[in-house]
Amino acid sequence: MLPAPHIHHVFAARQQFAATIKNKMYSHEFSNEVAIITGAGQGIGFEIAKQLCLKGASVVLNDVDEKLARDAVAKIGQNCIAVAGDAADVSFINSMVDEAVKRFGKLSIAIANAGITLFGDFFEYKAEALQRVMNVNLGGSFFLAQAAAKQMKQNGGSILLMSSVTGHQAHKDLAAYGMTKAALEMLAKALVVELSEFNISINTIAPGATVTERTSQDQAYMDTWKRITPMGRAATVEDIANAALFMVSPASRHITGQSLVIDGGWTSVSPSPY
Prior knowledge:
The protein is α/β, with parallel strands linked by helices. It has a single domain (31-264), classed as NAD(P)-binding Rossmann-like Domain (Rossmann fold). The chain contains nine helices and nine strands. The strands form two sheets. It has a seven-stranded parallel sheet, sandwiched between helices. Helix 2 crosses helix 8 (237-247) and helix 5 (127-152) runs parallel beside helix 6 (175-195). The longest helix has 26 residues, at 127-152. The N and C termini lie far apart (65 Å).
């Protein structure tokens, strides 16, 4: 029998070895995957793209802002290319999917992250604002799913749509936005019957308040969500990316048509930020 200190050292060494093997395994979790992520120049989309690349995926990173897309790719490094364009434009969506297949040989993951938030008083909301929100949030997601699924028919794949807690609970001045996010969750359910026979899963994630470049300098935002979130803080982009990667990973291969809320418990209590 080993003396106690020696037992401790052996146990520690075994733990370290197991951790090393686990890290190596997970660092290559997506090594055979090719992903498209829209609206990924910064924020949640960027973090998802970065994490996928770190775990071995090849990624087409899209943003409507060409400089933002190129700068994002420069930060991530290898196995990531920038394809700038409007993620609500159907012809662009089709060309982006074609580019992914041309560059990397296939497409196995599509994440419709691009979306816009146009606040507005319901009584004064303009038709052009509603149309733009619908085109980007719904149309862009619908047609990316369509184009991606056509490529995935032979070998299967995963599609992820970006919903929001506003699709579950009302927020003032966000009727149009919340409507589109709730609709995305129904879209995922509806497409289960279209895509399952091809071994294609489709799900949504619904982030709550999240600290991004846009909100990190807003102390009132940080303080408000710290106060009204049961877990005591707004989400980080890493929190959302972790959920996204799970939903497109082999670990979730029997999950489809579902929505995962990541909000620190806010929708359970739903106090208004106003």
